[in-house]
Amino acid sequence: MCSSFDDSARADGALGTSPTRRALWNLRSSEVATIACPTCGAARRAPCRTLWDRPTTVLHRGRTIRYVKMRFALDLAEPHERPVRHRAAPPLSGPGLTAAPAPHPQPWRLPLHELADLVNVSFLDLAKVVTAHACGLQRTGLDELLFGPDRIEQSIDALTYAMHDRQIRREVRVLSGGRPEEIEDLAAQERAVRERLRNTERRLKRQRIAELTAAGILPFPAPTDDSRRLARAWLGRYLPDEKEALVRRLAAGKGLAPLATVHIRSIPEKITRCIDNGWLAAPVTDAVHQLLELDGLAFRRRIVADAAQQDARDDALCHPLVLNRWRDQLTETLAEMAPSAENAHTKHLHDLTLTSRPRSDAQLRRLHNRRRLFAVLLQRRSESVRLITSLNDGMSLAERHDPSYELLKQAGDQAYDELVRRHPDLYRHIRNHLARYETRYGRLQLAEPRGQLRARIYDELDQMRPAHLASPARR
Ligand SMILES: [Zn+2]
């Protein structure tokens, strides 16, 4: 498979080396680490921290970019996004600079520690290496380097990029009448990368499930068939304000800080609580504040600007408080762009050659550019969805591991019992209604969706109480 991978990688403009990227070859993670990280706040010379505040061998891209810009004042735009204007390479001699080795056309042949450093600082080189690996390259330690817990998500991102890249280049060659061998090579690489991507996504999912299972979060408990527990839970849901006040009072009695018992009404509130409690390491920097305050149009410009470059990423978009907006805006932008990119939907990049019609060279070039941008937006959306998933996992894990979790659970349990004591009539009414569905004492077998039954019971409870006491759960 992919026998001529090396040749086509060398001939490949989009993934090849270019004068303006030469400096990256001489960059070391240890040099990047001499500046503080603008993303995670890691101090100078300290490793970056994950969202769960663990040290990671991966550098935040924002840190690398800031370092590179400071040191070389480089233009890091993608080769295919750059205006066709040949500029001289930036001067690389100067105080503190070591001699730059010539760019390696096959980075996967570098000593492993150099390779680890390279993929740390250069996304496009990571893309080259994961592609070579997908096409059959084997090497001791490479699998762990690319798909170990530190880098698996970046490698998935790089595989997504490489898959789109091969597909679009194949499409262009098919539509403009390229050489059949070249087209077959690109198609083979595309297939290999696609398969590796799917495998790696499954691997990531297995890792998540193992971690959540070890923490006791998975499997989710089945809905209770105990009518006493269900009646208690529905009473609490019917009287949410009273229940929350009780939980807070009982939790305070157990010595829990108010911060740990704040009732959460929205996702941003939940994230903020996790940051405030120190469960997530995600400093809300000036860059994040500015991003949060942008209006729709300015935010849109920001995500398109980020999509226009692969090696220089906008880390602020990955901040937990920005993630949901980023994903939603990406989806909207994709929907608007789909017709001009000739993509029937926004789920993935469909194969243009299956519905080809004649086009002039100029039309083809324009379409090619649109599809490049469309593909990157798809890649970014996948990234945002992965980040949201891991954020949610992380918040669940953090809550679960915090000492407040068990105490809060006890407080919740006691609050339900107290509500039953305070409102025996309401509780009894729910129990009596549920009794119709009991197969034996206390065991339920519901014949209709729970939500429907609950709504009917809440209507009846409202009628039992004065109008001004109707539950906010029903409003
Ligand atoms: Zn960092």
TrEMBL record:
Residues 83-102 are annotated as: Disordered. It comes from the Bacteria. This is CHAD domain-containing protein. It comes from Streptomyces thinghirensis.
